[in-house]
């Protein structure tokens, strides 16, 4: 199979078939990013078209500093963010939810990988409440199963920033999507839920024996934050499994 970089080079050199082959190779994954980020088929199609026109015209600007797929995904993400900004600048127009429902009804499971139930509608509505940066980070990492390093490359930010945005986004989504947990899941209807810190084995003082009050308070806060983060991830994981794609 011809490498992506070679196809892009051939396109820049005038090969009329190379870019089409490159697009066909990656279109499903690019579409998944667009539809998951925008939650509207028409907006997603427009954003993907704008992104591919941009990539087609800017192929000679690719310097090989990242993989071609990363470069393409970054262009799609930027086109989606532009669409979100334009959408937020104009009055909300009804019908987007109806279009998504219509598309789901005709059985296009790859339109929205969580389609087939009300889950996709609920997730889309919850995502729209997040800041754009958190929304895109969660789409890549939790819904499309990108590694943090891959998402960082696509977004052009540090891995720690991706982790931070995902953590903040999950914290905001969890109350809205907690009902998606099922019996037996951690924190679900029959699960143990989030436990309060403390209990047997807790240090005698704020930071344990031999630790000053101020340091003890800092250590206590750090410990509680760490336990809350681990517990939050445990409770979030069953939700993540339900909102991940079935075809992407």
What would you note in describing this structure?
This protein has 248 residues and is mainly alpha-helical. Helices cover 64% and strands 0% of the residues. Helix 1 packs across helix 2 and helix 7 crosses helix 9. The two termini are 21 Å apart. About 24% of the residues have low confidence.
Secondary-structure topology with pairs:
Layout: H1 4-12, H2 18-38, H3 41-57, H4 68-89, H5 96-105, H6 119-127, H7 132-143, H8 148-155, H9 159-177, H10 213-243
Helix pairs in contact: 1-2, 2-3, 2-4, 3-4, 4-8, 7-9, 8-9, 9-10
Write a brief caption for the model.
The chain is mainly alpha-helical and 248 residues long. It has helices at 4-12, 18-38, 41-57, 68-89, 96-105, 119-127, 132-143, 148-155, 159-177, 213-243. α4 (68-89) crosses α8 (148-155) and α8 crosses α9.
Order of helices and strands: HHHHHHHHHH
Rg over CA atoms, rounded to whole Å, is: 22 Å
What is the strand content? under 5%
Strand runs, count = 0
Distance between the termini: 21 Å
The low-pLDDT segments are 91-116, 187-211, 224-232
What level of helicity do the residues show? 55-70%
Mean pLDDT: 73
Q: Give the overall shape.
A: elongated
Give the key terms:
about 250 residues; mainly alpha
